[in-house]
């Protein structure tokens, strides 16, 4: 799956809001060792570096394209090409931060306890993930992918998955001194002829269209744009409201 940093960052301000909300809830003053897990193009890594300039900071991501952008923006930060499922901490961490990345990784029943174990005593696991997989936008994508017209043309079609908040509490509570779980729905005010499609093209749609040639992809996007416009019609001023649920976890060991 090839990421396109420019397309992803088209909505950088909107995508940054959950990260800022998560960052504001971290109860640490001077963490010495920080990992940004699934750092992408480094726009959130920059926030971590600005808040804790004396910390040893490492950004990890599985996309060479994203890491190339991150390294160009933050030459003083160490970045490593690796997937979450293949990563183990070299030393106990004070902060393990992950913004909009872990929903791409399966096996959360074992993943989250493993991430908690990577922390030093008092260390914090701070995670934000999309929680809108039952939204009309995502249901439409799954319906199209399963239809006879597209079933043999789309990619693996994994749009990510999460557990319920009660499940994360069950997995983490016994190993923490403080555990906060919450959710927020952000009402994104988007503009343009196909704003919801443009948003989804930067993330959710990537595995679906990965094997398509240009002509097939354009036809898929054309049909999808029409269906999304019905589900999310613009108002008289041309503004399309796109509600987007996010879940948050702050676990202190």
Present the secondary structure layout:
Elements: H1 5-8, H2 12-23, E1 33-37, H3 43-51, E2 56-61, H4 64-73, E3 78-81, E4 93-99, H5 108-117, E5 119-130, H6 136-146, H7 165-172, E6 178-190, H8 195-201, H9 206-209, H10 214-231, E7 240-252
Parallel strand pairs: 1-2, 1-4, 2-3, 4-5
Antiparallel strand pairs: 5-7, 6-7
Strand order of the largest sheet: 3-2-1-4-5-7-6
- N-to-C SSE string, H for helix and E for strand: HHEHEHEEHEHHEHHHE
The unreliable regions are 1-9
Strand residue percentage: 15-25%
Alpha-beta content class: alpha/beta
The first-level CATH class name: Alpha Beta
Could you list some keywords that capture this structure?
7-stranded mixed beta sheet, alpha/beta, 7 strands, 253 residues, Rossmann fold, disordered N terminus
Describe this structure in words.
There is one protein chain. By secondary structure, the chain is of the alpha/beta class. It has one domain: Rossmann fold (3-Layer(aba) Sandwich). The protein is 37% helix and 24% strand. The chain is built from 10 helices and 7 strands. The protein has helices spanning 5-8, 12-23, 43-51, 64-73, 108-117, 136-146, 165-172, 195-201, 206-209, 214-231; strands at residues 33-37, 56-61, 78-81, 93-99, 119-130, 178-190, 240-252. Strand 4 (93-99), helix 5 (108-117) and strand 5 form a beta-alpha-beta unit. The protein starts with a helix and ends with a strand.
